[in-house]
Amino acid sequence: MKLEVLTISDNRKIQNTIIAKIRDLINYKNLEPGDKLPSERMLSDKFEVSRSNVRDAIQKLEFYGLLKSIPQSGTFVANIGVVAMNGMIEDILRLESPDFKSLVETRILLELKTVRLAALRRNDDDLINIKEALDAYEAKALLGEDAVQEDLLFHLAIAKASRNSTMNTFMLTITPQIIIDFEKYHVCDKDQAVKGIKEHTEIYEAIKAQKPDLAKEKMKDHFSVLYQYCYSLK
Amino acid sequence: MKLEVLTISDNRKIQNTIIAKIRDLINYKNLEPGDKLPSERMLSDKFEVSRSNVRDAIQKLEFYGLLKSIPQSGTFVANIGVVAMNGMIEDILRLESPDFKSLVETRILLELKTVRLAALRRNDDDLINIKEALDAYEAKALLGEDAVQEDLLFHLAIAKASRNSTMNTFMLTITPQIIIDFEKYHVCDKDQAVKGIKEHTEIYEAIKAQKPDLAKEKMKDHFSVLYQYCYSLK
DNA sequence: CATTTTTAACTGGTTAACCAAAAATTATTG
DNA sequence: CAATAATTTTTGGTTAACCAGTTAAAAATG
Known about the structure:
Chains A, B: This is FadR family transcriptional regulator. Chains A, B: Residues 12-80 form the HTH gntR-type domain. The structure is a homodimer. Chain A is mainly α. Chain A folds into two domains: 7-94, Arc Repressor Mutant, subunit A (Orthogonal Bundle); 100-231, Up-down Bundle (Four Helix Bundle (Hemerythrin (Met), subunit A)), CATH 1.20.120. Chain A is 73% helix and 3% strand. Chain A is built from ten helices and two strands, in the order αααββααααααα. In chain A, strands 1-2 form a two-stranded antiparallel sheet. At the A-B interface, helix 4, helix 5, helix 7 and helix 8 of A face helix 4, helix 5, helix 7 and helix 8 of B. The structure holds a DNA duplex.
């Protein structure tokens, strides 16, 4: 089954139009932090779009912390000023979907940090989780089967042990696309999988021994191929 | 106007319940990548929740790249395997809201990279944007007014110039909460704002001169207070 | 019987009516 | 006239009916 992405551009377009209109409204009416936006009904009426579309746009701005909806009360402008509001909405409207290179670049940055933090902060439960992920990866890789998923679950287990919820969330958001791209571009082949077992084990041992610098170095080694691949793309 | 956060826990709870049920369904029915999920109507019927709730849950899983909805066709399991699917849903269900320390820690990590990339990749337009943000900050800070917003817009302009869409998005997602926390904890006081002008200018000059290492160093200096603040929290 | 055409059922998305809680307004009361 | 109580209006959230496109089944055709 092939997954098409036809309607997304249309959907984003109308959503972005509404977001821009909300921005204009905030500016025109000089709405300050904490002020109430017109009701969803009024907005859908004013903008001549469906209330669902208005709700979706509000939800997106809520995700970025710019608005806050309160049931049976209203939608409110967040406690950031008009300047930041305008700047951020501008950026949100221009956001492009992440390319592979940008994803990998970010992943390497994040993981060199999470592995360090994991070595510093991990508790015994974290260690067990990481070990389980490592074993699952090893089992799959030794069989010569595709182990991209188990690979990334190992890395996610480390991110979890870093005790940094923001980095953990970020890792979660980029992982699915990375898996898809990896399988698409065949980034990981068989012999790399076996090589990966050793590298993973070394990373695990460094975290277990609570040696942050060593853990980071081992992760760096592990990423060397990916690093080159990433920067050879363009 | 005070913004309460009462309903969120309830909303998340029911949404997470549905996500867990979708996970169980995928496992029970052995749905593989590309397979079609039962229709929203069937799910809302089976789970005994409203179709809106089902749609919201699907939307969240879509955000994390685990599902894909196609109009007039169905909702499909993404091209990642069951192992990654289970692991990621597990993590998503356990995701906690980001604490201030985790936000700042992540921000410092991201910005030490984006400023480097910006120095390497910035074009003339990027430079103009950064300069404008710098001037706006300077004007506000010299007047002794609160310039937290202009401060962060300067940093967002750098993130934009880094030409890494993923990091740019991540910076956007954490910025509003950082602004709110900064104003809440009064992280930036008056004399720091004036000191900030010099630091911002130095960062700008390094980016202009396309000296990545210098830019990173200047950003590090700029963050030194914040860094200490962050790690003194606990 | 294979192939094409037509029809019916099903899909996610949209719309409009409805709900309960919160605000705002009006009426009542001391 | 101020303070309280009752009522109406307004709100985001929910529900159910509807829409247009897709998909699968059935019928027609050679």
